[in-house]
């Protein structure tokens, strides 16, 4: 059994096309019905504004399955600590023995979450999308844009966050690290006005994005709602979008954006099925597409297998 620390893992696993392909393969397997994935085990720790999720999945034919333990404590930044932490345990799919411990401190979760956003945009956003609006200014606000650059020619970023100073710091970081043109806005509506892609990256408990904020032709990826008390999208967005996609229907209904629209009567696609069937969900440049990402165990098993393979080659 090998134990790998965050520094070792981060040196090998990057936001790059190979990692994107690994996570996309996991989604495709889910879409083909080749994945065993139980519901998320989730526990809230209300007095500390914290939560802990345990996710797992087995992909048929893959050598290992992962069990991920992921705490999120959202007051940690006030203490100078990261909001997310955790580790992944890799087991042999043949014997059940522990193959590796990936003590990544949440790094692989950050990577696979960003890659899922890029995969959603790859299959749903317009081919010529160049302008992205980001709601939120934390780490995922950065990584989502970085991952989007793997699938679209992103040139402009428009950001809105609750704190102007956080948004300004984010803008500086994105200009310096990625050479992007970044504009800070005082409202989500202003940030989204000319966007081709919108990404919400918040732990919000009430909508941060409304239907009236969205221009025609935009693609929206909502990745913050992964617990029943969280919500980023006004339900009318789900009702009015031309195409609505989720990572897993049962998860979105239990703890994602669909949880807040229980009476919604419309067709909802799963991202993995679209990938597996090579289906083109968007049929015109004017359509509004939406993807709700709650975070799935198959992503964790996919990125953990990929990471272990790279680490073993070292």
- SSE string: EHHEEEEEEHEHEHEHEEHEHEHEH
End-to-end CA span: 15 Å
- The CATH topology of the largest domain turns out to be Rossmann fold
Shape by Cα distribution: globular
How much helix, percentage-wise, in residues? 25-40%
Q: What's the structural domain tally?
A: 2
Mean pLDDT: 95
- Beta-strand fraction estimate: 15-25%
Determine the CATH superfamily of the largest domain.
Answer: NAD(P)-binding Rossmann-like Domain
User: In CATH's first tier, which class of the largest domain applies?
Assistant: Alpha Beta
Query: Largest sheet, if any?
Result: 8 strands, parallel
Number of strands: 15
CATH architecture assignment of the largest domain = 3-Layer(aba) Sandwich
Brief description of this entry?
This is Cyclodeaminase. By secondary structure, the chain is α/β, with parallel strands linked by helices.
Walk me through the structure:
By secondary structure, the chain is α/β, with parallel strands linked by helices. The protein has two domains: 2-108 and 298-313, ornithine cyclodeaminase, domain 1 (2-Layer Sandwich), CATH 3.30.1780; 118-295, Rossmann fold (3-Layer(aba) Sandwich). The chain is 34% helix and 24% strand. The chain is built from ten helices and 15 strands. It has helices at 6-12, 17-31, 107-124, 139-148, 164-178, 188-192, 235-240, 249-255, 271-276, 297-313; strands spanning 2-5, 35-36, 41-45, 50-59, 64-73, 87-92, 98-103, 131-135, 156-160, 181-184, 197-200, 219-222, 243-246, 269-270, 289-292. It has an eight-stranded parallel beta sheet. Strands 1, 2, 3, 4, 5, 6 and 7 form a seven-stranded mixed beta sheet that branches. Helix 2 (17-31) packs across helix 3 and helix 3 (107-124) packs across helix 4 (139-148). The longest helix has 18 residues, at 107-124. The radius of gyration is 18 Å and the shape is globular. The model has no long low-confidence stretch (mean pLDDT 95). InterPro entries: NAD(P)-bd_dom_sf, ODC_Mu_crystall, ODC_N. This is Cyclodeaminase.
């Amino acid at each position: 059994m090998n134990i790998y620390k965050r520094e070792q893992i981060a040196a090998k696993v990057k936001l790059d096309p190979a990692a994107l392909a690994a996570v996309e393969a996991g989604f495709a397997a889910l879409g083909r019905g080749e994945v065993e994935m139980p519901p998320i085990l989730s526990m809230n720790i209300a007095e500390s504004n914290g939560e802990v999720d345990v996710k797992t999945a087995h992909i048929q034919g893959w050598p290992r399955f992962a069990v991920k333990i992921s705490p999120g404590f959202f007051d940690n930044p006030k203490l100078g600590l990261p909001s997310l932490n955790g580790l992944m345990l890799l087991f042999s799919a043949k014997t059940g023995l522990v193959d590796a411990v990936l003590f990544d401190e949440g790094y692989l979760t950050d990577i696979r979450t960003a890659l899922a956003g890029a995969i959603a945009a790859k299959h749903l956003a317009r081919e010529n999308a160049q302008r992205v609006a980001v709601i939120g200014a934390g780490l995922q606000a950065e990584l989502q844009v970085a991952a989007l650059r793997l699938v679209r020619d992103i040139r402009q970023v428009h950001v809105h966050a609750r704190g102007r100073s956080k948004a300004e710091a984010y803008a500086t970081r994105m200009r310096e690290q990625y050479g992007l043109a970044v504009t800070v806005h005082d409202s989500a509506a202003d940030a989204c006005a000319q966007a081709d892609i919108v990404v919400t990256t918040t732990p919000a408990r009430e909508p941060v994005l409304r239907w009236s904020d969205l221009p025609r032709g935009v693609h929206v990826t909502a990745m913050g709602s992964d617990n029943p008390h969280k919500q980023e999208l006004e339900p009318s967005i789900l009702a009015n979008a031309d195409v609505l996609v989720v990572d897993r229907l049962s998860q979105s209904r239990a703890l994602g954006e669909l949880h807040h629209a229980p009476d919604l009567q419309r067709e909802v696609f799963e991202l993995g099925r679209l990938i597996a069937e090579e289906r083109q969900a968007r049929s015109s440049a004017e359509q509004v597409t939406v993807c709700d990402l709650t975070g799935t165990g198959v992503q964790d098993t996919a990125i953990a297998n990929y990471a272990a393979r790279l680490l073993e080659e070292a």
